[in-house]
Amino acid sequence: QVQLKESGGGLVQAGGSLRLSCAVSGGTLSSYAMGWFRRTPGKEREFLADIDRYSKQSYGSSVKGRFTISRDNGKNTVYLQMNALKPEDTAVYYCNADPPGPVPAYWGQGTQVTVSP
Fold first, then answer.
1. Which residues contact 28 (CB under 8 A, 6 or more apart)?
2. Which one of 34, 52, 76, 97 is CB 3.0 to 4.6 Å from 29, fit for a cystine?
3. What is the full DSSP assignment across 28-94?
4. Closest among 81, 84, 99 to 36, alpha carbons compared
5. What are residue 38's DSSP bridge partners?
6. What digits encode the pLDDT tens for the residues 86-110?
7. How far apart are CA 57 and CA 59, in angstroms?
8. Which tens digits make up the pLDDT trace of 49-92?
């Protein structure tokens, strides 16, 4: 069974940086397109970034230029480097793995990021 585990969240001051990790087990990372999303209470889930199997990246408008997604297939891990953090980046951050074909995506449990003013 494929499982995703996010880590690296925490409390940081505005302007600071964090790097989130998403470790994949029970599956082979190189088979999946991977993405990062976040959710804030009362708001819809927001797309942040994704990276396909060929490492092509795309970003949501609110994080483009500040966040960078990357993957290390050898470590079965995807990363989200977050720079120039703002208080409005406070949210629970989730990664997902999108297998090829008509198979539902897998989701992690999330990691909390809190940015203080």
1. 73, 76
2. 76
3. -GGG-EEEEEEE-TTS--EEEEEE-TT--EEE-TTTTTTEEEEEEGGGTEEEEEE-S--GGG-EEEE
4. 81
5. 46, 93
6. 999 999 999 999 988 888 899 999 9
7. 7
8. 999 999 999 999 999 999 999 999 999 999 999 999 999 999 99
| Largest distance between two CA atoms of the chain | 43
Q: Are 46 and 64 in contact (CB under 8 A)?
A: no
Which tokens hold the place of 96?
């997902």
Buried b / exposed e along 26-40 (16+ C-beta atoms within 10 A): ebebeebbbbbbbee
Query: For residue 53, what are the contacts with CB-CB under 8 A and spacing of at least 6?
Result: 30, 31, 32, 33
Looking at residue 108, its amino acid is G
Best CA proximity match to 113, nearest among 90, 94, 83: 90
The residue type found at 65 is: G
